[in-house]
Amino acid sequence: MNDALKKAEAAVTEASVNTAAVQVALAAVELAKAAQAQQQAPPPSCSHQAKAPRSAGEWLAIACAVCVAGVGISFAAIGVAIGGLSAAILALVVRSLMRDFQRKG
Fold this sequence. Notes:
single chain, elongated
């Protein structure tokens, strides 16, 4: 009976070693499959789409908007110039009045 027990223990030990070896081998195969799948995966493609070129109507609208904005800026510049000129004339008039009051006083 002792001999049969030793044989059974040896068989169990061998089976457990074989099971561990099989598990390691299966893990290696799975790892190889995963590495191969990563290599075969196509690189991510560009997801944005190129814009269509602008039509003649869009370019005409842009040109009109630029012209209107240019006219608006020029009117604003004229307004600033008129305001500056008015302030300068006012300063000259006030200075002249101050001189006149200082001479008579």
